[in-house]
Design a protein that fits this description.
Layout: H1 2-18, E1 21-26, E2 45-46, E3 63-65, E4 71-73, E5 87-88, H2 104-108, E6 114-122, H3 124-134
Antiparallel strand pairs: 1-6, 2-5, 3-4
The structure holds iron/sulfur cluster (2 copies).
């Protein structure tokens, strides 16, 4: 019984160590100031109603298989994620891993509306893999 309990605790610690980062999302508190957009090293931030592409600001071209397993065409315009506020294309956000110590959008946002996206919990290794996938030259 004690052994099982220890194993469970070890497992819990392991999860705590590996699942500790997330993509970032922009909430409806956004005031559309635009300060975050030029700060994103992955060109993952877009103005409301903007059709975005995986190839914007990355090395991605043509048909691609994303680290998440999703199939897409990097040059195809994608539907805007918000028609009201700036938005983040989750598949392109690495929480700035590979470029900066902290999320740059959150660092400059005047109303603190760039927050961790609980629906997109990703390990640091996975985020680093996303960054390498988009920017193999770095
Ligand atoms: Fe871009 Fe970094 Fe913000 Fe993600 S956390 S949207 S990579 S600036
Ligand atoms: Fe919106 Fe903040 Fe970006 Fe300004 S910096 S556009 S308030 S998310």
């Amino acid at each position: 019984m004690l052994r099982i309990l220890i194993q469970l605790l070890l497992h819990a610690n392991l999860l705590k160590e590996t699942v500790n980062t997330m993509a970032i999302k922009i909430t409806d508190e956004c005031i559309n100031c635009g300060a975050c957009e030029p700060e994103c090293p992955n060109t993952a931030i877009y103005e409301a109603s903007y059709e975005w592409k995986y190839s914007d600001g990355t090395s991605l071209l043509g048909d691609i298989k994303l680290p998440s397993g999703k199939i897409a065409n990097a040059d195809k315009e994608q539907e805007p994620i918000s028609d009201e506020f700036y938005f983040i294309a989750t598949e392109k956000c690495t929480e700035c891993v590979g470029f900066h110590e902290e999320p740059q959008c959150a660092a400059v946002c005047p109303v603190d509306c760039c927050v961790p996206d609980e629906d997109n919990v990703e390990t640091e290794d996975f985020l680093r893999g996303k960054q390498k996938f988009m920017h193999p030259e770095n």
